[in-house]
Request: fold
Amino acid sequence: MKLTKQQSKLHQQALDLVHSDKALTWEDRKFILDNYFEAQGQLNALAGAFFTPYGLARDFSLEVGGDSIVDLCAGIGMLSFACEHKRADITCVEFCPEYVVVGKRVMPDAEWIEADVFAADLGRYDFAISNPPFGAIKGDQFKGKYTGGQFEYKVIELASTVADCGVFILPQQSAPFRYSGERNYREEESEKARKFREQTGIVMGPNCGIDTAMYVSDWKGVSPMCEIVVCEFEAHSSVPVELDVVPRQIEPQRECQQAGLFEEAA
Reply:
């Protein structure tokens, strides 16, 4: 995605805040979230990752509660920022080092774990939240009960091993219902969603009535139709999930450099 001159200017101002020594206000942190363009280069497109619009993240937070939250594939912390008013202990897990640098300025009170989400050393949480990368992401070697290729389902299965409940933003075709952008709610389970449910025992339920179509034009560089799904993991099988983790065949710093996120050494 090529930025306009104005977008480039705002992006640089966001980076200036990130790398400044000043204590950031809420408005400063919101400015970073609004104007940091993850689409510099092609990193996010290659990884299937796009950051959640603030309005959608704010509505998403209605479904989140508890005293502890883990944000899986946290990006620069938009979902966690929207859930900050819950006053929970928040842990953010993110693979890209530059995103972690930005995220620590956006959410300085959160615990940040820079790691492959499937290899991170996680505790136990009340809620897992995520806007995971969508689709069959190359390099993902997680192996659980789910044997399909959808990255978003693997993140949900991982969440089921570390949290009591979960809330996730999924592409509409990955959800077992249609609500956003529709005249009426209806259940519609695709073959891949059925496979995930049958293999894991995890039921993806509807949210409290959030129509994500309101924010479809607020994404940067894409216009995905999504659904927010809610999972109560205590309701599905408690049989432990084996995680066969093989390191990803990518170098995060090199990818971030290709995306223009790291400066070359002088």
Q: What stands out?
A: Confidence is low (pLDDT under 50) at residues 237-266. The longest strand covers residues 163-171. The chain has one domain: 50-257. Strands lie at 68-72, 89-94, 111-114, 125-130, 163-171, 177-178, 186-187, 226-232.
